[in-house]
Amino acid sequence: MKTLFKKRLGAHLTELTKYLRLVFNDYFVLALVFMIGGLGYYYSNALKQLTTGLWWAPLLIIIVLLISVQTGRMATLIEDPDYVFLLPKEAELIGYLKRAFWYSTILAALMQLLFWIVLMPFIQVTVSASAPQLFSLLGTIIFLKVAWMNADFARKYHLQHKWMGNRWLFRLIIPVVVLAISIYVNYFIGVILAAIVMIGGLFTQNAWKKRSVDWQTLIADENSRMHSIYQFFNLFTDVPSLRGSVKRRRYLDWLLHKIKLLPDNTYLYLYAHGIIRDNEMSGLYVRLTVIGTLLLVFIKGEVLPIVLCLLFLYLIGFQMIPFYFHFDDNAFVHIYPVTTEFQLKNFQRVLLMMMGTVAVIFAIAVIAVNLTTPVTVIGVLIGEAIEVGLFIFMYVPRRIKKSEFSR
Amino acid sequence: MTLQISNLVGGYSQVPVLKDVTFDVKDGELVGLIGLNGAGKSTTINHIIGLLTPFKGSVKINGVAIDDDVKKYKQQIAYIPEQPIVYKELTLKEHLEMTMLAYNLDQNEAWKRADKLLKTFRLENKLNWFPDNFSKGMRQKVMIVCAFLTNAKLFIIDEPFLGLDPLAVNDLLNLISERKRQGASILMSTHVLDTAQRYCDRFVLLHDGKVRTEGTLAQLQALFPEAGKSLNDIYLTLAREGEAS
């Protein structure tokens, strides 16, 4: 069982490095360096303005440390089929999970250290804490994190006493109380309390480590953890495990309800539902829109904003074209008595909606930033209108015809 | 007595799906668990394999409940889920090795048995393939091979026939008979009633979280003389009756 964890951890780390290499490409690293540099500069400037005794400073410290304690979940690396294949080994699973627990705890403790280092100057300035006080605060958050992790461990078993794995208790209530005591009353009482909670928590292991495993929670927890990791990576690159995942997005139903249920709208119905609910498509769309808008907000000039705006608009439209064929491997659409003429028309309508929305958002960004240059204001409006028209009604039909041949 | 379920009340959250379920599976016996969708078959199975804990009542295998001794309890079970579930990154061979490790099987002996099983299910030339890419029926075969590799005393088989080709169904039934002769107990849930009628020793009919009736085919026929001769007829009559009430 111990070797199994080692093996899984190895595979997991290889996968993470693969994605991290894609995330930390040259441009992103450069942007990150500037961002950290900028933030650091801002932070050090802000510190000079601060004095001891601000009423909100202790509150802010508690909130930041509370966030710090929430970072890092228990990485069990359990997979879906485990509940069938490891069924007879369940009694020995504790050895595997203990390794996972300590691995996750050490990583989480390093995160606490990082938060502590960043926050240290702020604490020194605003509440003028001494070195021993600061170190006991570090101990407090690490001990709280161990107790947090232990509760996350406990809930993966069928507990006799449910409170041992209670999330509210170990994630929020105890940390808030202990941190408040640390900051407002006494740092040393805080660290002692945290240590007691941690040791008590670890002692509860004796109560549940021989009980049966709650496979459903175990598997669901790990899947949700991996899902959030993949979601982060998906901001930078295409993650295969996320592909094809579908979200309900009930809040956009009003858009879909606008479609009249006529035979001519068959494809409109499909495309609209598909684009809104398919994570890959809507993710791409939102990502490019957000990046484009952010870029345009920061760029002033006469021609450059227009060029960038048109470029992003083209990129977004271009990425949407393959969606035309999205339903082609579904047998239903070939059986429906609908002509392809309407397929193209419906697709163009969806594109018009989507590109039109982006065009408006971009236009607002460009105009807001460049209000003083009328040429840019008028240029961006005319340019967008021409581009959207040409793209949807000239380029897309040709492009689709071409790809239809090559398919 | 291998599996003994007594007064089991249970389910997923606070709302019980199973209301006072009691039945048993004896040594060398194949019991068919039948019932409509949502009657509680899978919930019962999830309780037996320890995915769920009982609100009330108990599940015991050879006198051991899961809370008495997890290890002793679990080592007696082999389980074939309704939806075949395999590791994405493991080959067929590695799945077999994983099973051997998990059940502490002697490698030499287990491989002899594995070769035989693989041949039976025509998988012997796919050892280095990834079952994740197999069809549903083929993945189901992988699950069957893994389960019958073990020396489990109790086999829990959830709806095994869907997606299997007729030859494989027949081979599976032969495997079950062979294990029965060796004294293992088998609990099988299924909707394929004519097959169940021919092979199961006894039937437990679940309806709405309760055991509606149980017994051998002859006993069921005697209990419901006007319902018809075959298990199918009896089942349909009882199911309609249950819906009406």
Automatic annotation (TrEMBL), chain A:
Membrane-spanning parts: 20-43, 55-79, 100-123, 129-148, 168-185, 191-208, 284-299, 305-325, 350-369, 375-397
Entry protein name: Bacterial ABC transporter protein EcsB
GO cellular component: membrane
Transmembrane is among the record's keywords: yes
Keywords: Membrane, Transmembrane, Transmembrane helix
Organism from which the protein derives: Lentilactobacillus hilgardii (strain ATCC 8290 / DSM 20176 / CCUG 30140 / JCM 1155 / KCTC 3500 / NBRC 15886 / NCIMB 8040 / NRRL B-1843 / 9)
Organism domain of life: Bacteria
From TrEMBL, chain B:
Record carries keyword Transport: yes
Domain of life: Bacteria
Chain ranges of the ABC transporter domain: 3-233
Entry's EC annotation: 3.6.3.25
UniProt keyword ATP-binding, yes or no: yes
Alphabetical keyword list: ATP-binding, Hydrolase, Nucleotide-binding, Transport
Pfam families: ABC_tran
GO molecular function, one term: ATP binding
Protein name (record): ABC transporter, ATP-binding protein
Name of the encoding gene: skfE
